[in-house]
């Protein structure tokens, strides 16, 4: 995608120093566009934990490069296994992280240590290229859903899409998942408008999705998290499209906290609720999302404080709760498959069910 007309991916190897990996510091958006230069696996782990880099597909790709950086210093078996475990433990819910590390290890374990560094960088690059291709395909399949909505509308009526959190190109290597069909529809000339949930407590919708859409020229409106149901009741939402951090073999969906409530509202108002994902987000080893998917509990400080831009142009963090009030901060919730209209994958759309997933991915079932 482009920023001020310049094409970017969300992660890349520094062309002047192949032992440095570059990412955008997402904690600084939308008020500043800063590039971080990571030169060690420890720096990569810190970036993932602090959410300087986030988004399920992207943290998998960045972690793959993190392992490559670690091997540049010590390509031994012991070091490789230790660093892989450290990187895999940085975030518990998104399955792409574990998937990327396991893929890297499968490639590198049989190799001689002296051959691992070059092979690691090559494999991490392949993970990135495949993510871009998958997300572009997701965009094409999701675009058909938006075209069908437009065909049922009057010429002057716009397509209203609601999304939650950030599942755009800044959450992947490029294109995004839930936002990819929206970008393609906009570029095709369809009249699309996006309701952007603020996504408390970290405000990824207000900060990141709104920034992305605005940079690309897509009409959008930021709303508080609790406004979605109201808009659905009044016919102002044609479709909900969200991303996901993990999908079970039976179609349950783990996504940013608050997604479940949007799915309930959508079901009550007969609004289609679609989830966009690459196949790397499917966890074939998990059947029951509510019982088996670990939900990350993040710092209560994310709830008790908020960061914004002052009139004087300073970025400041202020407390918004009473000093002695405690806070809980579950980062994700699970939406049962029964509330999901369907899944948008790189191989097409399917029902949110084991049967639906197996119809698209028969060879990977059970792996």
From TrEMBL:
Pfam families: IF-2B. GO terms for biological process: L-methionine salvage from methylthioadenosine. Pathway: Amino-acid biosynthesis; L-methionine biosynthesis via salvage pathway; L-methionine from S-methyl-5-thio-alpha-D-ribose 1-phosphate: step 1/6. SUPFAM superfamilies: NagB/RpiA/CoA transferase-like (SSF100950). Its EC number is 5.3.1.23. It is an enzyme of class 5 (isomerase). The keyword Transmembrane does not apply. It comes from the Bacteria. Substrate binds at residues 54-56, 91, 204, 255-256. It catalyses: 5-deoxy-alpha-D-ribose 1-phosphate = 5-deoxy-D-ribulose 1-phosphate; 5-(methylsulfanyl)-alpha-D-ribose 1-phosphate = 5-(methylsulfanyl)-D-ribulose 1-phosphate. Keywords: Amino-acid biosynthesis, Isomerase, Methionine biosynthesis. InterPro entries: IF-2B-related, IF-M1Pi, IF_2B-like_C, Initiation_fac_2B_a/b/d, M1Pi_N, NagB/RpiA_transferase-like. The record marks 165 as: Transition state stabilizer. GO terms for molecular function: S-methyl-5-thioribose-1-phosphate isomerase activity. The active site is at residue 245. The keyword Membrane does not apply. PANTHER family: METHYLTHIORIBOSE-1-PHOSPHATE ISOMERASE (PTHR43475). Catalyzes the interconversion of methylthioribose-1-phosphate (MTR-1-P) into methylthioribulose-1-phosphate (MTRu-1-P). Also catalyzes the interconversion of 5-deoxyribose 1-phosphate and 5-deoxyribulose 1-phosphate. Part of a bifunctional DHAP-shunt salvage pathway for SAM by-products. Belongs to the EIF-2B alpha/beta/delta subunits family. MtnA subfamily. This is Methylthioribose-1-phosphate isomerase. It comes from Acetobacter aceti NBRC 14818. The gene is mtnA.
């Amino acid at each position: 995608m482009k920023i001020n007309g310049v094409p970017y991916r969300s992660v890349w190897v520094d062309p002047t120093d192949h032992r440095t990996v570059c990412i955008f510091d997402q904690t600084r958006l939308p008020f500043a566009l800063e590039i971080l230069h990571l030169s060690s696996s420890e720096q990569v782990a810190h970036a993932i934990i602090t959410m300087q880099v986030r988004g399920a597909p992207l943290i998998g790709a960045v972690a793959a490069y993190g392992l490559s950086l670690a091997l540049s210093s010590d390509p031994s078996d012991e070091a490789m296994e230790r660093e892989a475990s450290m990187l895999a433990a940085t975030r518990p819910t998104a399955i792409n992280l574990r998937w990327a590390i396991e893929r890297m290890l499968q490639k590198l374990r049989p190799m001689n240590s002296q051959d691992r560094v070059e092979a690691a960088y090559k494999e991490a690059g392949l993970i990135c290229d495949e993510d871009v291709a998958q997300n572009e395909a997701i965009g094409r399949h999701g675009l058909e859903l938006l075209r069908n909505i437009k065909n049922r509308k009057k010429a002057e009526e716009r397509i209203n899409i609601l999304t939650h959190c950030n599942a755009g190109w800044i959450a992947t290597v490029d294109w995004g998942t839930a936002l990819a069909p929206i970008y393609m529809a906009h570029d095709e000339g369809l009249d699309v408008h996006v309701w952007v949930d603020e996504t408390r407590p970290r405000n990824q919708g207000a900060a990141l999705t709104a920034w992305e859409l605005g940079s690309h020229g897509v009409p959008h409106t930021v709303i508080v998290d609790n406004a979605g149901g109201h808009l659905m009741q009044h016919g102002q939402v044609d479709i909900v499209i969200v991303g996901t951090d993990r999908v079970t073999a039976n179609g349950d969906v783990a996504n940013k906290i608050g997604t479940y409530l949007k799915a309930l509202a959508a079901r009550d108002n007969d609004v289609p609720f679609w989830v966009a994902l690459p196949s790397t987000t499917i966890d074939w080893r998990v059947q029951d999302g509510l019982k088996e998917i670990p939900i990350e509990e993040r710092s209560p400080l994310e709830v008790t404080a908020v960061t914004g831009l002052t009139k004087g142009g300073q970025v400041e963090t202020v407390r918004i709760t009473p000093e002695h009030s405690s806070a809980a901060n579950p980062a994700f919730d699970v939406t049962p498959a029964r509330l999901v209209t369907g899944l948008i994958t790189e191989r097409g759309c399917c029902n949110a069910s084991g049967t639906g997933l197996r119809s698209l991915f028969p060879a990977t079932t059970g792996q």
